Fold this sequence. Notes:
Blueprint: H1 3-20, H2 30-39, E1 46-51, E2 55-56, E3 59-60, E4 64-73, E5 79-82, E6 97-102, H3 103-107, E7 110-111, E8 133-134, H4 137-141, E9 147-157, E10 160-168, E11 175-181, H5 188-207, E12 213-219, H6 223-231, E13 239-245, E14 254-257, H7 265-277, E15 281-284, H8 293-296, E16 305-309, H9 331-348, E17 373-376, H10 400-415, E18 417-421, H11 422-429, H12 433-445, E19 449-451
Parallel strand pairs: 7-8, 11-12, 11-13, 13-16, 14-15
Antiparallel strand pairs: 1-10, 2-3, 4-5, 4-9, 6-9, 10-12, 14-16, 17-18, 17-19
Helix pairs in contact: 1-5, 1-9, 5-9, 7-9, 10-12
The chain binds zinc ion.
Amino acid sequence: MNDSKINQFSTKISKLCELLFPIHRCITGNGTRETLKILKNNIDLTLHEIPTGTKVFDWQIPQEWNISDAYILNENNKKIVDYKKSNLHVLQYSVPIDKKLSLDELKKHLFTNSKHPDLIPYVTSYYSKNWGFCLSYNEFLKLKDETYHVMIDSKLKDGSLTYGELLIEGKIKNEILISTYVCHPSLYNDNLSGIVLTTLLAEYFLKNKPYYSIRFLFIPETIGSIAWLSINEKKLDNIEHGLVATCVGDSGVFTYKKTRDGDNTIDHVVEDVLINSKKPFKILDFWPSGSDERQYCSPGFNLPVGSLMRTPYENFEEYHTSGDNLNLMNPKNLVESLLLYISIINKLENYPDKSTVKKQKRKKKTSKFNDPVFLNLFPKCEPHLNKRGLYNSINQSKNLEKMKTQKTIQWILNLSDGTNSINDIAKISKINSSFLLEISEILLKQKLLLKL
Ligand code: ZN
């Protein structure tokens, strides 16, 4: 690719980032809709609306959330937290509130991150009704013992979930799926960078007809991929390769998270392209938490979808804080990521099938003494753990024990396809088998598992 093309990409990246960064996106609502409408200026996206209450596997499309203002006033009527200054200041999906309360009462609804005392954390509460504010730890420490007035002017109403989709027809009908998520507010690397990369990638292949057809999805994370999979089950046989585009804009080394089988053509091609790039990179085996690959790679689908990132979510300092802003943006990094995605898609054409897993059909197992085999009764996408009290309702948990339980649940559900015993899962997940057994008992009682 010549320098002028690279400069063109850089200019477009800067413009799109600056335009989209301030918009308050969420899993539903007008910010996400507005974002997708702006992308329509670049690529011919189809916007889909799924009504509130629609059943999608074990989930339901939630009510639509919109917000116009939020603040905390102190006794001197001074705004000490102001949504207009940062959309991260509000707990995402907060129900409306307008009341006066004491500092002690207020503290139950405040979220901070003491590890990054100057940054505002990004916190959500999608599936349990709550309200709250997020502020830097240093601002939190300054709060005096007085009466505060909290106001959140939000609306939770029946509406719809919006997502964008574009299918570029290639020379063959078989598809590559490129999926990115559009539900994060003003945060750059996670995941405005993914939105911008996916848009420019689509724009490129609209001008350069690809060999495979390419399906681009711009969806809210988790609920969006669950909804899309639920509505489009019949189309899944066409998907031969896939990637989730996230965290592609920082300067970290490329990190590829493999597909669930770890031995699909996409895994081999990404590795080849990374080797040929002569840049440092990391390749990681699949793990069942993370982004939408969790749903695409749930045992009922097991789609060949990996994720190519730079520094993965949770691993960069500014992750889910106000530090993940446009100061991190250097278009050069995003261009580099984009060129890698283009190379991967081009290389998939006529790539020899080197995979062995698909050919050796995995054998079903039965339980042995002290080494039971379970079957996940909700194999298509994750079951809704929150409504069963099995998931942190707020995405910022300081409770490591809870986090460990959550990850263990995800491992058990993802690998309990009848071919893995508890000891097998222990080897793959590196979680000890007695804890796996303990959690499996809870999942059995909740009727999420069946013992084989
Ligand atoms: Zn995130």
